[in-house]
Design brief:
Strand 2 and strand 3 form a beta hairpin. The protein has five helices and three strands.
Length: 206
């Protein structure tokens, strides 16, 4: 159900040329009183609107109440000119307000676009930084793995060098004992076993 709104809350300004008197008006005002009405309207303005009925097929407003106020506007040039000026000012103000509203709405749209552009740029920067962090982490991991492999390879080389030195010492010791004793094969085997015992089982296994 449409909410009712009293006409008094919907006073509008319309061209006086579109207002027509009704066919029946029983009130007659004498000329002196009409002059007083004109003077009152000139000094105080229209304090009460004229009540009209809109006729859509004729695009006219037929008076229901306020015939003499309407008549003053039609017959008093100074009041007519002032009202016309007020209406023109009101129309200009309305057009200016509409233009300002359109400008404001346009700025709002621009602000939305600008905000979206800023957000898009921020997302792109964040993604770029994220990719850079991942790439840096991968590079650091590769460097750590490479360094660990190099250190392991170096340790392995040192271990092999130490083992070679121990084997050389063992061979030298065996040779010295073999020459000193002028030994047979059986004696050599015995010397090898003795040498191994002297070095210790744990040293040989390492």
């Amino acid at each position: 159900m449409e909410e009712y709104k009293s006409p008094v809350y919907n006073v509008i300004a319309v061209p006086v040329e579109k207002v027509v008197a009704n066919t029946y008006n029983p009130n007659i005002v004498a000329p002196p009183e009409m002059k007083l009405l004109e003077l009152s309207i000139w000094e105080d303005g229209y304090t009460m609107p004229c009540v009209c009925y809109y006729i859509p097929e004729k695009d006219q407003y037929e008076l229901v109440d306020g015939f003499h106020r309407y008549k003053v506007m039609k017959t008093s040039k100074r009041i007519y000119d002032r009202i016309e000026s007020d209406i023109n000012t009101a129309v200009a103000d309305k057009e200016s307000a509409a233009a300002l509203k359109a400008e404001y709405e346009g700025k709002l749209k621009d602000i939305d676009k600008e905000a979206e552009a800023i957000l898009t740029e921020a997302r792109q920067k964040a993604l770029k930084n994220q990719n850079k962090i991942v790439d840096d982490a991968k590079e650091e991991a590769s460097r750590i793995i490479k360094r660990a492999r190099e250190e392991a390879e170096l340790e392995k080389k040192h271990a092999m060098d130490d083992m070679k030195q121990e084997m050389i010492q063992i061979a030298s010791l065996m040779a010295q004992k073999a020459v000193a004793a002028s030994i047979t094969t059986d004696i050599q085997d015995t010397l090898v076993e003795e040498t191994l015992k002297e070095m210790g089982e744990s040293t040989w296994l390492s």
